[in-house]
Predict the structure.
Amino acid sequence: MIGKIGRVQNRSKLIFQKHWAWSRTTNDDQILVLKKGIWIYFFLLIFEGSLRKWFLPFLATPLLIVRDPIALLLLLRSWQYRLLPPNFYVFTFQIIGVLGIYTAFFFGHGNLWVALFGARIFMIHFPMIFVIGQIFNRDDVVQMGRMILLISIPMTFLIALQYYSPQSAWVNRGVAGDMNGAGFSGVGSFYRPPATFSFTNGTTLFFSLVGCYVLYFWFHQKEINKLVLIFSTLSLIAAVPLSLSRGLSLQIGLSFLFVIIAISRKPQYTGKIIAAIISAVIIILVFSKLSFFETSLTNLTGRFELASQAEGNIENILNNRFIGGLIASLKESFRVPFFGYGLGMGTNAGGFILSGNHDFLISELEWARIIGELGPLMGLIIIFLRLLLGIKITLGCYKKLTQDDFLPWMLLSFGLFSITQGGWAQPTSLGFSIFIVGLTLASTKPINSHE
């Protein structure tokens, strides 16, 4: 009897696989359309802030969610074309998203629009990770990297212009044409530049992604135009001090650590990394003789010193923001109501709707925000699933590294933190988190594969 059941299950599995393969081979046109949709999602992520600040300031509020319709359409089409297999992560996030709307309305803040704004993170954007991972293949991920490096060159010129321009200048204009400027506090009279983004965190996130690809392409120079690689590398080196971002500096350092781990498995790469380090040092020394770079480098050093006085050394900062964030979140779970204060309350837009200001109503730390919004049960489920997905992706990337595939491992250097603790309350941060994790998933697939 057991054997008969097993044969039936195997036969059903073969029929499903045959049908699935058939549907995939007949959906090439649909796949191409979906890929174009992902590219649109990417370009809106990069230039959404430009529209809100400079070109369509009168539409600044609706443009805050300009990527949402694209993500929703991609999600629906992927399900319609059977290109997104059943997924436990997506299913659970969808359920919690729906429950979160009800609990926010009946037991929390009571604002339906704020609850819907918070639910869209779980129900629309999170599934985009798997849409990108399913629709894109490794070739697409490499092509995306070429585009990102190409964009990084004019992006660096833009942040340099913003850095040395007053906040009243057009390039520093804020969201909705705010004449007070979009720059954020930095050092002295110098502000952190927002580039094409609504807020300065976009600069940090974008160049963190640039760093992953720059390091990858230096080990695979045949996959990119050499001049683009050289100029994007110079742009990255210049962008680190110009950004006045400690986060970007630490992320580039983390990516280098991933490189060291990778070359420990392939000693023949040691010469390349040593040459790259020497070249970077020489470039920094040459740049330091230029007044514009010397000023930005001095200011970045000053910002680290000020931060050290306030928060302690790098080890203390990391402990406070990572380990400390975990402990604080777990402690918070014993103090919040069982159903939380309401989905969306901890987001920037949701907090503004409820309070009229941009202060964090729950917490700036991501895990504490999730627990505060959803309560201890649903909040800890979301955190656990994010950690579980992070572990799964890490194991997949390491497996590819053992097969001498360097790309997933380098993307993981940025994507691992994004999926586990990356802030999803702010739209730009959410977009980069979803995008880098989706690219990391897609990069683990064979070339020209959609499986």
The chain has a mean pLDDT of 86. Residues 2-443 form one domain. The chain has one domain: 2-443. The first helix runs from residue 2 to 25.
